Amino acid sequence: MRIAATLSALLVGLVPLGGAYAQVRVLEGPTPIPAGSARAAGDLTIVNEKLAFALAVESAAPYGVPRGAIVDIAPVRHGRIGRDCVVFADFIPNNWSAWPNTYHRIEILERGPQQARVRSVRDFGAITLTTLYTLAAGSDEVLISTTMTNGGDQPARDLLSGLTLWPSSGFLFPVPGLAGLTEGKADGALSDRVVAYDATWTVTLHAPYFDRVGDGSRDLYLLHTLAPGESRTFSGSLQVGASGDLAPVVRAEIARRQLPAAHLRGAVTTRDGKPVTHPVIVIERNGKPYAWALGENGAYELTLPAGAYTAYATGRSYSRSTPAALELASGSTTVRDFRDLERPGRVSFQVTAAPGGAPLDARIVISEGDKPLVGYLGRTTFFTELAHRGRADVPIAPGNYTFTVASGGGFLAANAEARLSVAPGKVRTAQVAVTRLFDPPARGWYAADLHHHADQAEAVTPPADLARSQLAAGLDVLFVSDHDSTVNLPVLREIAAQRHVPFIGGIELSPSWGHFNAYPLTPGATLAVDTSTASVAMILAEARRLGAAVVQVNHPYIPYGYFASLDAGVAPGGFNPGFDLIEINSTVPDDDPRVLARAWGFWNAGQHYYLSAGSDTHDVWNAESGRVRTYVHPEGPLAVATFVDALKAGHAYVTYGPLIFPATMFGTQIAVRPHESFTLAFDLAAVAGLRQVELVQDGAVHATRTLSAAPRVTHVDFDIRGGEASWYALVAEDQAGHKAYTDPIWVTAGPGS
Length: 753
Hints:
mainly beta; Immunoglobulin-like; eight-stranded antiparallel sheet; globular; disordered N terminus
């Protein structure tokens, strides 16, 4: 029976689903969804002629989430299943916090052909989660209904519960009206949907219950409390499309909410009358992006809720049309043509060092000019090539632009600007010179971003683009740490060898109660532990089995950070001393004081857990590699082994901008007699100019130097009288408010004490 079901599953992608095949089926076994992660014999795939989705019944779910959740979704087009679009798209009970779980039960209630229904039951501590998944024949939506029931004797307060949508590639269109809101109340939302998309697919989460967003609209939550014995039901859906067109999404929204509607259609051409083959019509409401429609052969049409809008037409690397104000009355049809588009142009960048003219790796960003809303129409961030250092050839819409060009920007050099005009059908050459102000390697200091993702799980950066981004940031060592995956290590190792830079390959071990970077790994090592059931001891043991010399506690105080879970008593096994480093993470800079306080507490106890830093970048086009970084002073020539040894020994500091060169190496120990004076001396530098330096002793500020002249380079001495055993560290701040935090210099009482 199981063999037959699995064979049937494998044939789905090859057999057209028309006629008798246009029905719903439930398939058991490894999913037929290409690149899907539900690979176990007991997993389930539900498919009709519009979409397929898979439940991890026996396969591990990502991020340590218990089994019984959607881990794969794909469109079905012309009878063939497309590539998996998501990492996770399901319900979570309380933000991305630890998920205490002891069981999951999956039951097939209906197998088709007109409808399939599957029920998943899991526990979250004292709360039971019952989720019903429903897919009907002919439908492009998976209906999801989750009921939370508090079976305990205590209220569960301030829960952030709801459905989430974490794509594995492509782009994200946040809840309309909330673009730029990372987390918080959904005031101003123009809809109750978020869309993951690319040119050939869309997955839309409709969440009528939500009142808050998290992770930039990937999480649509309701803030609530569950009293003992109380139940609450959350209903939503996942709508799947086979192109990057949002017109079906808006139609579904109109139908579900029973909104008065109007029809809009028209033609799209260039100024010389040529139809734009694949035009995109962008719709704004209340001055904010609301939706778009994808046209064909110069024509478009879409249905919208009745009301006032602004619309413009564009295309891949085409200019925008003149915007049109629209008043759409219920039941009306409006014809609006756009006939003034300009065809694409191109810019050829050449980035060099000044003086000298040597080519530089660089990040190039449109700071002024046309910035496409729809991701597949064109980027706003570009990188120079790996094979041709300093060169970038960029297709772009015609118009006037200001580009910001960064090579080690903010750390080693000020950013440069390029202002130019791009003409339709023409190539414009831009020669940009960047002046490098500082050279830390000349003083034995080398930088790495020690928390960075490529294209596994929800990350969307191919390995080559990770390398381009990290090199453009002025980093000296390439680094990757994908969630629970080592697949990108071989290709990045090869890229690093071609560019003659060291490469540290890592993995981010990702249970629900804490994330840990383990590095460097033994070549060929792969994850063998189940992160959804592993204890703290098991995770740390797995890191060492993989060959890691370093285990780093990532973002310790976010809701699923290890220290946060320890404080809440939900890290299985409790505190384990088997880690080495504590991360300063630039995605949560408000947590820096808590992370430092924890590190300083360890140092006060004589424990040598040192600092590291990482940007946690997943998408290099929307986040900068190395915006916080670790500078390390190896003993001898730079190599992976010497870099890691120095990092573990505390010969390092972390920085958002300021550079520090100590006379006495961080992590070392000096002996001082009682009442003997000694000096701690530091050279400092900052592109933005220096503002203040604090010397910290045993967790308290010992001395402060304010630098009113804002020098880019300075020297500070701190004269100290010896006494008891102690430690000293530096906190430097530049004029932009960016800080650097050092590992300690240990002082012990010498002879005569």
